Amino acid sequence: MNKKNQKNRLIIVSNRLPIVLSQTDTGQWDVKQGSGGLVTALAPVLRDRGGLWIGWPGTSELIEKQDLETMFEQTVKDFGYTFEPVFLPANLVNDYYLGFSNQVLWPLFHDLQSRCDFAPAYWDAYQAVNKIFARTIARNIKDDDDHIWVHDYHLMGVGQELRKIKTTAKIGYFLHIPFPSLDLFLKLPWRFHILESLLCYDMIGFQTQRDRRNFVQCVHAMLPDIKIRGKGRVLSTKVNDHTVRMGNFPISIDYNEFAQKAATKEVEKRLAEIKEAFQADQLILGVDRLDYSKGIPERLLAFRNALERYPELEKKITLFQIVVPSRQRIEQYDNLKNEIEQLVSEINGRFTRPGWVPIHYIYQSVDRTELLALYRAADIGLVTPLKDGMNLVAKEYCASHIDDNGVLILSEFAGAASQLHKHALLVNPYDIQAIADAIYYACRMGTKERKTRMKALRKIVKKSDIYWWVDEFLTAVFSHNLNTFRPMVDYIPSQDTVQE
Ligand code: ADQ
Fold first, then answer.
1. 374 C-beta closer than 6 A to ligand 1
2. Where in the sequence is the domain holding 232, given as residue range(s)?
3. Which residues pair with 229 in a beta bridge?
4. What is the distance between the terminal CA atoms of the chain, rounded to a whole angstrom?
5. 437: annotated active-site residue
6. Is 223 exposed, middle or buried (0-12, 13-18, 19+ CB in 10 A)?
7. The model's pTM
8. pLDDT tens digits, residue range 268-298?
9. Does residue 251 line the site of ligand 1, with CB under 6 A?
């Protein structure tokens, strides 16, 4: 990135602010920066350039607006950048967040159209909230050299709203979830609005080449006057004299942080306790947010299928499935929780033997030490989403496996497969028998093959970590030379990998 651009102030915009609010014994509110990969990577950039993070605090009902603003004034001193809360009227939050974001865009973009609820009121709320975000951003822009980076599917319309109020600052946008194929996208009643909104950004970032290709196909089919050109990883087009670029930038994790923390004494201690507690030869780990896109029931069925078809696995394998609660007010998520719990209980009821319980199921968030110890203890990481933008669990599992002795079984529909396909065991997450076979194969895999595969996986995650991702995206938005972006070609199933 050139020196001039490095000085531009950066404004990050996401649905939720990356903060954790807690109340002290005296009832005072305390604000701490969140610990996710995105904030870890962006915080130094925001500090260097001077920056601001705009988002919904999510707890407006618990805390007075005035108190929150006073607290955020304090954070400039502590963090070197500040937060700007977007206060959303309570009557819009449900329809915008639980409604349009999570019952229209989320299922449709994960190829699960039957789970969509295309209620018109949801769209109205989505537009209204995107307008509120745009106004908050506009109020906070100091000059045209400020750079704005909007995140994810909740805020696809913010760019267009900003253009309506004549914002000329550069605006980048990154979609964390997949972009659907043309046939699916056409089902969306507001398809033209969404496409035209996205084309108001200066840069549209996708996780994989497949997502970018789907987007380009939608533009070419629905807006044939727009010609998208280019050959490399970043393409471009002109829309009303405004240049729009689009590229694929696979998000990642802070590899060094995971690798270093995985080697700490606390993790070693917890690892020893876990190993002591699980006497089975092979510990298999699943870690997911509660979501139907993560393929948890299908994974449990595959585990059951492995126990049925390979009786020699009895007492030899244990599945440790952690599910973190999510979107608790949507009925489909409650039903999914029940379905998972029934399957776990059915499988354990049928296969448990004295001294061996096949599935350990935890429905809660676990702390970082516990997660790292589990990643290290797991001989097999089982990551089988039906569809996923990227899936950071797959990368965290590899980064934490500092002894290189683990096998990653990965869904070919996770964005992570675009980078990890050669060295993971790739599976079609709908193919229960293929997952069961991969489990069996992984259990019997020799140490040499495990280590060769895991070393190669770790090298890929290390090379393209979260800092690389931030740098690549920001360079693509703000630099002029697009030839620096080497193409990244996705995994496409071939005759060799597809078992009919
Ligand atoms: P998510 O759908 O939330 O993210 P993912 O990428 O797997 O999915 O990230 C989940 C995160 O939550 C991981 O960092 C994981 O460690 C953590 N986590 C999960 N279960 C946990 C538990 N029980 N306890 C503690 N931590 C837990 C969206 C997209 C993804 C995309 C990311 C980033 O859906 O496809 O990879 O954004 O772009």
1. no
2. 3-248
3. 236
4. 47
5. no
6. middle
7. 0.94
8. 999 999 999 887 789 999 999 999 999 999 9
9. yes
